[in-house]
Design a protein that fits this description.
Shape: globular
Order of helices and strands: EHEHEHEHEHHHEHEHEHEEEEH
Strand content: 15-25%
CATH class of the largest domain: Alpha Beta
Number of helices: 11
Strand order of the largest sheet: 3-2-4-1-5-6-7
Radius of gyration: 20 Å
Helix content: 25-40%
Largest sheet: 7 strands, parallel
CATH architecture of the largest domain: 3-Layer(aba) Sandwich
CATH topology of the largest domain: Rossmann fold
Number of domains: 2
Length: about 350
């Protein structure tokens, strides 16, 4: 049993677009009587997820309880960013009952658990649990390796052969570190997709884990909070592809921020973003756009060719209706000029 005086922290991990922000939004609105605080660790310069969560702030999780860490993963900036952030939250009055940490979609959770062994905080906080989100449709489609069946067959035939892609390693590290796995977007996967996703995940996890279907982040907080896993002291049960290596997990990925002009039609922007996935292997797009004649800001989030958009709030005067997108891809696929060419076939449009 963990020290009950320690402040519990839940690490929420998951691949790009798996629904982490949606889950945290739901927990903020239904905290089960707990006063929550949130740390959002983004990859890239535009704090989209933090802005979404601050827009959902309620008395049990006010805006001042929501802090962002951008331009670097938590585990690599422990002294400079992570510790001061945790100290800030612990100093709040009233003190939070529980801290949620949303990791970058590209993050490996195990190095983050090691950060909780930092002398300044290890006696005062504990990792209540690691929750991994997996997009059922994406997993069923085998998007974490070029050909999941072929790779699995090769691995079974010869353990010395490693055809894993960086995406596959990130995904497997996330679910291997988890205490509970949430299978998200089951409606998009359908019964057959859900069954396939479960089978693939169960074949990869190092130990039996609860695997729960969750739509739109709706889950009883009693299911995922209060696990008392003390995960920081349970590292051996959470294997990683990167055990024994100090390589930074983001080296395989890169991002670029693109300023975008005002668009006349959201459908036009959505079509161009969708073209990035098919033409340039772009993994993730998120950001904001200005639409002509609309006072509201258009929030855009894409996973591969699947693009979601909605008007989230009015532009503030200091923002000046400035549209920006964060584009994330594997390192070799980031070509800023080509990305701009897809978003703006007419070079004059980007000026």
């Amino acid at each position: 049993m963990p020290d009950l005086e320690k402040l519990p922290v839940t690490v929420i991990t998951g691949f790009l677009g798996s629904g982490k922000t949606t889950l945290i939004t739901q927990l903020m609105q239904n905290p089960g009587g707990k006063r929550l605080a949130v740390v959002v660790n983004e990859f890239g310069d535009v704090g989209v997820d933090g802005e979404i969560l601050k827009g959902c702030a309620i008395p049990d999780c006010p805006a001042e309880n929501i802090l962002e860490l951008a331009n670097g993963c938590i585990c690599c900036t422990v002294a400079d960013d992570f510790i001061p952030t945790i100290e800030t939250l612990m100093a709040l009055d009233p003190r939070p009952d529980h801290i949620l940490i949303e990791t970058s979609g590209l993050a490996l959770p195990k190095p983050l658990l090691k950060a909780f062994d930092w002398p300044d905080i290890r006696s005062r906080i504990t990792v209540d649990g690691v929750i991994a989100l997996a997009d059922a449709e994406a997993v069923a489609a085998g998007r974490f390796a070029p050909d999941v069946a072929a790779v699995d067959a090769q691995r079974l035939a010869d353990e010395s052969i490693d055809h894993e892609t960086p995406l596959s390693e990130v995904f497997e590290d996330q679910i291997s570190c988890a205490d509970i796995i949430l299978l998200t977007k089951p409606d998009l996967a359908g019964p057959e997709g859900i069954a396939k996703a479960k089978s693939l995940i169960e074949a990869e996890v190092p130990r039996p884990l609860p695997l729960i279907e969750v739509a739109e982040g709706a889950v009883d907080p009693r299911v995922i909070l209060g696990l008392e896993a003390a995960a920081e002291g349970d590292m051996d049960a959470r294997p990683s592809h990167h055990d024994g290596h100090d390589d930074h997990e983001h080296d395989d990925f890169d991002s670029v921020v693109i300023d975008i002009p005002e668009f006349a039609d959201p459908a036009d922007l959505v079509a161009r973003i969708g073209a990035l996935a098919t033409g340039q292997n772009i993994l993730r797009v998120k950001g904001y756009a200005a639409i002509a004649g609309k006072p509201m800001r258009l929030l855009v989030q894409a996973v591969g060719a699947r693009v979601r958009h909605q008007f989230d709030r009015a532009w503030t005067p200091e923002e000046g209706r400035r549209g920006r997108l964060v584009i994330i891809a594997e390192h070799d696929d980031i070509d800023a000029a080509a990305i701009r060419g897809t978003l703006f076939p007419d070079p004059q449009a980007a000026e």
